[in-house]
Amino acid sequence: MSKFQIIIIGVLGAAGLVAVLMFMGVIPGFGKGGVGSGNEVKLTMWGPFSSEKVRAAISKINEENSGSFSITYSEKKPETYKNELLNAMASGNPPDIWFLSQDMVLEYKDKVQIIPFESFPERNFRDIFVDSSNLFINRKENGIIALPYIIDPIVLYWNRDLFSSAGIARPPQYWNEFLSSVIALTKFDGANNIIQSGASFGEFDNVKNAKDILSMMILQTGSLLVEPETLNVVWEEKGNAAISPVENAVMFYNDFSNPKKTSYSWNRALKNSNDMFVAGSLAMYFGYASELSSIKEKNPHLNFDVGLVPQIKDGKIKATFGRIYALAVSKTSHNQQAAFSAMTKLIDKSLNKGFSESLFLAPGRRDALTEGSPDPVLSVFYKAGIMARSWLEPNPQKVSDIFEIMIESTATGKMRMSDAVRDATRALEQILK
Predict the structure, then answer these.
(1) How large is the average pLDDT for residues 232-243?
(2) Max Cα–Cα distance, the chain, nearest Å
(3) Given 3.40.50.2300, 3.30.40.10, 1.10.3210.10, 3.40.190.10, which CATH number is that of 5-149+324-386?
(4) Is the predicted pLDDT of residue 15 greater than 90, yes or no?
(5) Residue 345 banded pLDDT, cuts 50, 70, 90
């Protein structure tokens, strides 16, 4: 017998698949304070999202379940979120429910209460949530680590004024169009200094999201970086191609910082890519959907729009990179039964969609994404959410350091491509162990 049992009931109606998760039985050791005891259980919930933005969604679920449980949400700074979680767990006072992103899975999977497949079948999980959510499946333990909830995809921010001035009507759909647009949109002064850039590729330190942009380019080939079950690094596998996906991505990326190439549009002397875009000196910026509000706040007069990232022409798949945030229950929570009960309410389609839209991001459910959004910007985020892919990073900062060395050593000619990729592969393998 498992500590809890979750039954999933799929109802196929006109609106599509509706999943309702209901709990039956009692988790040993709950006693007073458990659901059904007659006492309202006070639950804590942590996440890196604005408490002001999610207040309405939390209030709604609390009102609908008054007498059973109530959730108190605590907003945590993204830069300190992980440390606060570790400290809370070490002290024996963890949040009952918390947001777990895909780049936290390997480090935190032993700190969550696994949902067994016998209670929530893998088939149902795959039917309800988007493909990128499969990173939360743990076959070694025959269960699910967390329930996907929010998707924050990388999209293409583009400056309408710069495009119009260059006589370009729309943002590029494919990488070959992207290359042509970059050449047309980049401007130099008399000393050959870049005064306007088409795109911020080729460097690492001053390119925000460089690690994830490179990951995106590799994933678009249909290749994985790391096999999720074995944790083997597979980005060097060529298949029928002349060079590996990682080599192809690095070569294309580096060309934009090479003064000898026609695509030259970026160098390390320029400001951070986000600042350049906000200032109106960068035509195309690859950023997360969650960056939209900060861009608007920094420059309310910037005439820009959002679109999907370029794809490989005639490619087998369309993809972008995305952060996936899932709901997890702490293994040491004193209120697991109530926490899982609350979580099943939260993943209801209407609540999931309402919660995600309060953050102006994409929901994790297929049926919610399929409905789309009438908002012209949010509709792009929804499409990008469906396309979003990711991988199990063992440690985001260490991975970023590995990528930076690989990019800079090849761009400067310090290392041959094959040697740089080999070293990066070994470094990834080491931290995965």
Answers:
(1) 88
(2) 77
(3) 3.40.190.10
(4) no
(5) confident
